[in-house]
Amino acid sequence: MKTYEMLRDSGFREYLIMHHSKDKLVSEYEMDWRFNEILNQTLEKWELGTIEYEPSDILKSVDPVCYRQEFLNYVDSEGYEECDDYYILQSDIEDLYEEYLESKE
Predict the structure, then answer these.
(1) Which of 17, 19, 24 is closest to 90 using CA atoms?
(2) Phi and psi at residue 47, to the nearest 5°
(3) In degrees to the nearest 10, what's the CA dihedral of 9, 11, 13, 17?
(4) Residue 17 CB neighbours (<10 A)
(5) What is the rounded distance in angstroms from the CA atom of residue 14 to the CA atom of residue 20?
(6) How far, rounded to the nearest angstrom, does the alpha carbon of residue 56 sit from its chain's CA centroid?
(7) 17-65: per-residue pLDDT in tens?
(8) Distances (CA, A) of 100 to 4, 51, 82
(9) What span, in angstroms and rounded, lies between the C-alpha atoms of 79 and 75?
């Protein structure tokens, strides 16, 4: 079974949130923060007069569609899959799905 098929199982998603939200799941807020940090560390701040702007803030304000697409590219490049309001490493999904199935027995 493919990982996206496993994540379509609402019981599995509920199991993940109840049992692994602290250790295996990354919140959307946390993932967004990580992405912003990468942008801000790799791109220069913009100055307008005496005010400095972070690259992530500029991209999010000027082109939110592009920001979201780059965010999704980042998530994918880091090996994560979206699961409701969380992200989970693709490499963890199969093992956790087996754990979930065993818990149902």
Answers:
(1) 24
(2) -115, 135
(3) 180
(4) 14
(5) 10
(6) 16
(7) 888 878 889 999 999 999 999 999 999 999 989 999 999 999 999 999 9
(8) 15, 51, 18
(9) 7
State how far the Cα of 3 lies from the Cα of 57, in Å rounded to an integer: 33
Q: Where are the alpha helices (DSSP H) in 9-104?
A: 10-20, 28-42, 55-62, 64-77, 90-104
For residue 27, what are the β-bridge partners?
86
Q: Which backbone phi and psi does 46 adopt, to 5 degrees?
A: -100, 135
Structure tokens at 59: 């991209």
Q: How long is the chain? A: 105
The amino acid that residue 98 corresponds to is E
Angle between helix 64-77 and helix 55-62 axes, rounded to 10 deg: 120
Query: For 22-33, what is each residue's pLDDT tens digit?
Result: 888 999 999 999
